[in-house]
Specification:
Tagaturonate reductase, 2 domains, globular, alpha/beta, 503 residues
């Protein structure tokens, strides 16, 4: 659809062209997480089902933590946005765009918690989707005060479910289907376990605990699509192409996969396969292992090395001779320790490299770097353990990327809820869990003021069991290896350190 009047995208604008585009549908989904990925993935899938008359429901999007301008801007556009899918699929070029109409409105959990709880009172509500980063599904000890939002996502979910339970007096048929899209192994089970702990912490009624267990369904999932988000560098081009302004333009690749371990009831209520979505029902273990290790792992491997070496996107990394050699070395370390057939692994790795070279995609390394400490823990730390066990030595490329990550978290100052890093005079935001940010700020300042050596800094960071789930100092030779690479990066810069490493 091309409108050609250069106005802001909203209901009034597109109804001038086609009044059947925006349908008045019930709000069947509440979604915790307002980011690019969900708009280019789940909200697109729901839109596809709606267009075919298969789902007939809309999404209430909740911004769970910060109080930025996202939700007001989204509501100004009546929840509408344009999704542009560009890439190579089955050897053919795909370049298409469509207006997504599945979002009804947005809410901010911090200052609109009462409105979020009103959604829990809805007869039509059936699903909870979430993407709060890997760090979002984690236990945080916190207080519960009725009418106030808990700080963590599991806490918010528990309070939301308790409000629904109270509203409907524990009715058997008012439970919800909870579909976490965070890239966490056994994400549904882990989320449910934290909800159980919240119920115990807050001494909520046993009847509520029983209702959560018996009448709510927590799904395990695996998500896969590269969504690069807002095209900030090409915004004028896209606004001219579309003929209207859109503050939520979202760009992704055509490829997608959604693996869900759920029963027949969920399949009937969420008919993704009937809408042509690439969904895999049943055990997600084999899909997760290959995807996390061979797609997400290389992303995390390359982001800090590539960015600090002077490039900005995944494609630029893959087109840079030295950085590509580094990434290839990382693949050679990851592939042997990934479960699955050699043929399947090699084919997936080949496809990943093609996706990384998508000529239409600007996948910014700084976007990959959001909350990347937990990403490293989830995606690459298991590879270090497996490689050491199988090969008897550390994977040098992954250890190099670990050191680069620690250097990426070296701040020059604090700004609001971010640390600010510096790359050759260019500043970048470091977004991470507050406790992690405080730790890195404190420890890098000690290095700067000669209160700690680089090795002492590495020992302190690696010892944080709350971050890593273990004391990484116990891994053979890891402290010395990481310390060496951090010192090299500090002394010679990233580009020269990569060059020396490859020799």
């Amino acid at each position: 659809m091309q409108i050609l009047n250069n106005s802001l995208l909203n209901n009034e604008l597109i109804q001038e062209v086609n009044d059947s585009v925006v349908k008045d549908l019930p709000e069947k989904v509440i979604q915790f997480g307002q980011g690019n990925f969900m708009r280019g993935y789940i909200d697109w899938m729901i839109d596809e089902m709606n267009k075919q008359g298969l789902f007939n429901g809309k999404v209430v999007v909740v911004q769970p933590r910060s109080q930025g301008p996202t939700i007001p801007l989204l509501n100004e556009q009546d929840g509408l946005y344009t999704l542009i899918l560009r890439g190579i699929q089955q050897n053919s070029v795909v370049d298409k765009h469509e207006i997504i109409t599945s979002i009804s409105r947005g809410l901010n959990a911090i200052n609109e918690w009462d409105e979020v709880l009103k959604v829990a009172e809805s007869e039509e509500l059936e699903f909870v989707f979430s993407n709060t980063t890997e760090a979002g599904i984690a236990y945080v000890k916190e207080d519960f005060n009725i009418g106030e939002p808990p700080s963590s996502y599991p806490g918010k979910l528990t309070a939301f479910l308790y409000h629904r339970f109270s509203t409907f007096n524990g009715s058997d048929n008012k439970g919800l289907i909870i579909v976490p899209c965070e890239l966490v192994e056994d994400n549904g089970q882990k989320l449910m376990e934290i909800v159980r702990q919240k119920i115990a912490d807050w001494k909520l009624p046993s009847e509520f605990a029983e209702w959560v267990e018996k009448h709510n369904y927590f799904c395990h999932t695996l998500v896969d699509r590269i969504v690069t988000g807002f095209p900030k560098d090409d915004l004028e081009y896209f606004h001219q192409l579309l003929g209207y302004k859109d503050n939520f333009l979202t760009i992704g690749e055509p490829y997608h996969l959604f693996a869900i371990d759920a029963d027949e009831i969920v399949r009937e209520k969420l008919p993704l396969d009937k809408a042509g979505i690439n969904v895999k029902w049943g055990d997600i273990t084999p899909y997760r292992e290959i995807k996390v290790r061979l797609l997400n792992g290389p992303h995390t491997l390359m982001f800090a090395v590539g960015y600090l070496a002077g490039v900005d996107t995944v494609q630029e990394v893959m087109q840079d001779e030295e950085l590509l050699a580094f990434v290839e070395r990382g693949f050679t370390e990851i592939l042997p320790v990934v479960d699955g057939s050699e043929e399947e692994k090699n084919e997936f790795a080949k496809n990943v490299k093609e996706r990384f070279l998508n000529p239409f995609t600007k996948h910014y390394l700084t976007d990959i770097g959001l909350n990347s400490i937990n990403k490293f823990k989830t995606r690459l730390l298991p590879v270090i353990h497996r490689y050491l066990e199988q090969q008897g030595s550390l994977p040098s490329g992954i250890c190099f990327s670990f050191a680069a990550l620690l250097h990426y978290y070296r701040p020059i100052r604090v700004e609001e809820q971010y640390l600010i890093g510096n790359r050759d005079g260019q500043e970048y935001k470091i977004q991470e869990d507050e406790k992690v940010l405080k730790l890195f700020l404190q420890e890098w300042e000690k290095v700067a003021h000669h209160q700690k050596t680089v090795r002492d800094f590495v020992v302190t960071i690696l010892a944080e069991e709350e971050i890593w789930g273990e004391d990484l100092n116990k891994i053979q030779d890891l402290v010395e290896t990481i310390t060496f690479y951090v010192q090299e990066i500090m002394a010679n810069g990233m580009r020269m350190t990569v060059r020396n490493y490859l020799k």
